Amino acid sequence: MTAVPQVDPRDVPEGATIIDVREDYEWEGGHATGAKHITLGTITERLAELPAPGEDFYVICHGGGRSNRAATFLREHGYAAHNIAGGTSAWFAAGLPMTSENGEAPAVVH
């Protein structure tokens, strides 16, 4: 199995590409500002939407499990994916910028 770098949310570089692999209802409630939404179940068919292989990017979910699975798969296929440890729960707890798609204050939905 490919080792995936685990990155604290506070260490994600400003302006970095973040791929959120959560389900639609989770995304709509709140997500990292600027993140791109590609659910775990559709990632294999949406590879063309990812940064080029070798280009660093970060994968996030609710708690880090789904994003780690996605990042492992992507690394095995030549992508420089990093897992955001603790997911959106840790992102929110760190006070990092979040946005919602439902017009309400951003929240971590699971």
What does this structure look like?
With 110 residues, the chain is of the alpha/beta class. It has a single domain (6-99), classed as Oxidized Rhodanese, domain 1 (3-Layer(aba) Sandwich). Helix content is 23%, strand content 17%. It is built from three helices and seven strands, in the order ββαβββαβαβ. Strands 1-6-5-2-4 form a five-stranded parallel sheet. The chain has a two-stranded antiparallel ribbon with strand order 3-7. α2 (65-76) links the parallel β5 and β6 (81-84). The longest helix has 12 residues, at 65-76. The chain is globular. The mean pLDDT is 96.
Set out the fold topology:
Layout: E1 6-7, E2 18-20, H1 24-29, E3 31-32, E4 36-37, E5 57-60, H2 65-76, E6 81-84, H3 87-93, E7 98-99
Keywords: Transferase
GO molecular function: transferase activity
InterPro entries: GlpE_sulfurtransferase, Rhodanese-like_dom, Rhodanese-like_dom_sf
